[in-house]
Amino acid sequence: MGRYVARRLLLTIPVLLGASFLIFAMVYALPGDPIRALAGDRPVSPAVVQVLTERFHLSDPLWVQYWEYLKGLFSGDLGTDFRGRPVLDTIVRTLPVTVKLTVVAVLFEIVIGIVAGVLAGIRRNSFFDNFVLVSTTLVVSIPILVLAFLTQLLFGLKLGWFPIAGTREGLYSYVLPGLVLASGSLAYVARLTRTSIAENMRADYVRTARAKGLPQRTVIVRHMLRNSLIPVVTFIGADIGALLGGAIVTETVFNLPGIGREVFDSVKAQEGAVVVGIVTLMVFFFIFFNLIVDVLYAVLDPRIRYD
Amino acid sequence: MNTSTGSLESHSPLEPAAGVGPVLEVDDLHVEFRTRSSVVNAVNGISYAVHQGETLAILGESGSGKSVSAQAIMGILDVPPAVITGGGIRFQGRDMLTMDEEDQRKIRGPGISMIFQDALSALNPVYSVGFQIGEMFRAHRGTSRKEAKQHAIELMDRVRIPAAARRVNDYPHQFSGGMRQRVMIAMALALDPRILIADEPTTALDVTVQAQVMDLLKDLQRDTGMGLVLITHDLGVVNEVADRVAVMYAGKIVETGTVDDVFTRPAHPYTLGLMNSIPQVEAKGGRLNPIVGQPPNLSAIPSGCSFHPRCPRARTGAAAAPGRDCVGDVPPLRLVVPGREAACHYSEEVLGV
Question: B187 and chain A: CB distance < 8 Å anywhere?
Fold first, then answer.
C-alpha cells in the first residue's frame, strides 16, 4: 500500500506539469492585450507599457514565459498579478471560502443524499421511493446556473430565508449556495445509495446474517448498510475533488469570493499567473482526492489490494 | 406429545415444551410465492420430524421445494413474495410460526442453524471470518469482542482449518472453497445447535473436498448429538451420510423411509426413476436412463399425482382402479410397508409385493 501511494504521488508531478503548461498555453493564446485590460478606459503611457511588458515577459515566446514561470515555481514563488500582488496571497485569501462551500455541499450530499437513498432502497416502490426518483430526475435535468438563479430568487429575494449573496452572515451564507452546488451530486448519491441498498438486501450474506439470529438492527446496519455504502463513500470522495474546483458558477452567482470566482475574474482580466496558479491547484485537488478514494476503497473492501 | 403450551410457560424459547420427542417437526407446511402474474406453489404440504442425533436427507431436483422449506424453518424467506400459507414448524414442541419475532430470532443459532451452498457469497466479504464466527457469541451471549475471537479460533480448530489462530483475521476470499465451507460450518456450529440444516453443503466443492466436508459434518454430529437435515440432489451423499431420506417432487414428499430401504426398493416411480438414472459402471458406453419429460411448472402443477405426465405407470380412465386415477385423484402419502411411506396409488406394484 505504501509503495502504491508513493508511486501515485510521484505520478502527480508530470500530470501537474502538463496541466499547468496547457493552461499556460491557453491563457497565452487568449486574444487581447492584458495591459489594456488592466488599464480599462484610462490611457497608458508607453513607458508603463514597456516596464510591464518586460517584467512579465509579455513579448517573449510561450516557452520562455513558461520557463520563467517554472523557475519561480520551484523557488516557491507563484508569481504576481499585474498589480504586483503575489498569487499565493490571492489563493490564501480565496481558498477558505471555497473550502467552506465544499464542506457545506458535501454535508448536504451525505445527510440528504444517503438518508433519502437508504429509505428509498429499503422501501422500494413506496411513495417515498417514487418521490426520490422523480425529484432527483428533476434536479439532475436543471442546469446549475438556472438552479442557482431560481433558488436565489425564491429563497433569497422572495421568501428572504437566506442571504441573497456574499459571505456577511458567516456559515449561514453558505447554506443556499452549498445546496445548489451539491444538488447534482446529491441526486446522484441518493440514486446510487438506493440501487446499492436494493441490491444488497437480497445478497446471500444478508440472508446468512438473518439465519445467524442477529438482531434486525445489526443485520441492517452491519451487514447491509456497511456493504452498500462502499460505492457511495468512494463517489463522495472523488466529488470533493471536483467540487473544490468546479464552483465557478455557484461562487459567481452568489458572489462568494472563492477560488472559482477568482478564476472567472482572472480569465476576464487575462491575469495569466493567477489563472495558471489556481487551475493547477484545482487539478492537484482532483488528483489528490482521487488518490484518497483509491486508498479508501482498499480500506473499505478487503478484496481490493494494490500490492 | 404436542401438549398445549399454556401449561408450560417458560422464558427461553430454547427450553423444550415437552419431554423427549422430535427436536424438529414440520407439519403440513405450505409455502407460495406470489408474483404479479402468477402464484408459484413451492411447498405443498410437507411433514417430517428429526430426532436428536438423526440425519434426515431431503432429496429432490431443483425446484422441488427442498430449499424453500428449509428457508421457511429458518425464517429467512423473503416475505413477500413468499407466504407461508399453512402448517406448523415445531422446535422442541413449540410452534415457531406463532412465536413472536424476537423468540424466533433467539432460536436461530443456538437452536437451529443453517449452512449454505455457496460459502463465498454467503459470507460477508468485508468482515474477517473470525469476526463473522464471533458474531454468534456476541449476538446471542453478549460475549466481548476479544473473547468471541478466542471462541472463533477454537471453532476453526474444531473444523480442522490449519493454523486457525493465524487465519482468524483473514477474509473469506482468502480461503479455498473447502476451507470457506468449513468456516460456514464453524459459524453454524458455534452455539451447539440442536438442529443443523445443511442446504447442499458440498455442491459447490470438488469431489475430494466434498468427501472431507461430509466426513467432518458426520464427525461433528457424532460429537454433539445434533439432528441434521441434509438437503441435496446428490444420491451418493445421501447414501453415505443419512439415516432416513425424504424424496421431494413438486413441493411434496413422495416417498420416505430409511436410506437402505428407499434406495434398494423404491416404492414410488419417481424414486425408481432416480435410481435407474444413476450411471452404472457395468453399462459403460451404453445410453443413460433418464426420467423422461420436464420438471413440473410450479404455477400449474399437474392434477392428481403431480408426477403423472412423466410416469411410465400412470393409469387413467378405465385402466385405473376406482378412486386411484393418476390424473384425477391426488395420491396421499401413506404407509405402504412398515417404516415406508409413499404417495403413489400403485406403490405395491412398484415394490413388487
Answer: yes
Please indicate, yes or no, if residue A245 is contained in any of the structural domains: yes
* pLDDT tens figures, A139-189: 889 888 888 888 888 887 788 787 877 777 777 888 888 888 989 899 999
Tell me which residue in B78, B139, B171 faces A212 most closely, judged by beta carbons: B139
Q: Where are the domains of chain B?
A: 120-190, 272-351
Q: Find chain A residues with C-beta within 8 A of B109's C-beta.
A: 212-213
Partners of B125 on chain A (C-beta within 8 Å) are: 205, 227, 301-303
Looking at residue B346, the DSSP 8-state letter turns out to be T
Question: A208 vs B109: CB contact, 8 Å cut-off?
Answer: no
Within 121-180 of B, beta carbons closer than 8 Å to A belong to 121-126, 128, 135-136, 139-140, 171, 173
Question: pTM for this one?
Answer: 0.77
Contact state of A208 with B140 under an 8 Å Cβ cutoff: no
| Domain assignment of residue A8, yes or no | no
Report the domain count for chain A.
1
Q: What is the ipTM of this complex?
A: 0.83
SS3 for A22? helix
Query: To the nearest whole percent, how much of chain B has pLDDT over 70?
Result: 95
Cα–Cα separations (whole angstroms), residue B299 to A93, B248, B311, B314: 71, 17, 20, 22
| pLDDT at residue number A117 | 92
Q: Could you list the residue range(s) of the whole structural domain that residue A165 is in? A: 98-300
Q: Label residue B118 left, alpha or beta by phi (over 0 means left) and psi (-120 to 50 means alpha).
A: beta
CB contact under 8 A, B126 and A213: no
B30 Rama class: left (phi>0) / alpha (psi -120 to 50) / beta: beta
User: In this predicted structure, what is the pLDDT of residue B114?
Assistant: 92
Dist CA B328 CA A42 (whole Å): 105
Q: Closest chain A residue to B107 measured between Cα atoms?
A: A213
